[in-house]
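User: I'm putting together a teaching handout on how multi-component assemblies are represented. Below are the sequence lines for each component of a complex, exactly as they appear in our records. Could you produce the 3D structure of the whole assembly as structure tokens, so the students can see both representations side by side? Please keep the chain order the same as the input.
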Amino acid sequence: GAGVSQTPSNKVTEKGKYVELRCDPISGHTALYWYRQSLGQGPEFLIYFQGTGAADDSGLPNDRFFAVRPEGSVSTLKIQRTERGDSAVYLCASSLGVSGDFFSYNEQFFGPGTRLTVL
Amino acid sequence: AQSVTQLDSHVSVSEGTPVLLRCNYSSSYSPSLFWYVQHPNKGLQLLLKYTSAATLVKGINGFEAEFKKSETSFHLTKPSAHMSDAAEYFCVVSSGGSYIPTFGRGTSLIVHP
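Assistant: Of course. Below is the structure of the complete assembly, with chains in the same order as your input.
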């Protein structure tokens, strides 16, 4: 079956531009996470959705970052007025998320990531 | 609060020799601990997880890890390295029933023929 897919795989943009990164989770997975991975670092949590709602967005670095999941499936991470420091690999993961302790008891399946480069 | 420290940024072994990737954690509550592997241009894959059951956890591809509360460690081992094990490995902690994980910085495993 299909895994988590992310598009585009690579995105090069100029400082100040707006970008959208898409995540297509595994069908039936209600939980969806976004992470950011900078070079030489581990993934850093950004935001977590349960269904259509953002259950926790405490990892978003500032108000230039926003994410939506309008129908509880596909999610889009939106970055306004991009800065060079936004350059990273953006990872998406999904899980069944049927119980309260989502991360510990529901394996996360990761997509291959989108490499964002801001010039 | 929770944190995780991977003690080695790179580990180099010969094929057929044992692998040890070290991880120490800090957690205010009972932790859940995980190891993920990331092959180049592939998504992260769960190797194994500890969630307060048996302290010795067996994972995929012959890997295992032992939870040692007294040492706050969760080191990853494998008896015999294979060339296909070459990848980036991440130790992850999630504590107190949290759904927000903290990843370590990663250890790059290099396997020589």
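A couple of points students might notice: The mean pLDDT of chain B is 92. Chain B touches chain A at residues 9, 32, 36, 41-46, 49, 51, 90, 92, 94, 97-106 (CB under 8 Å).
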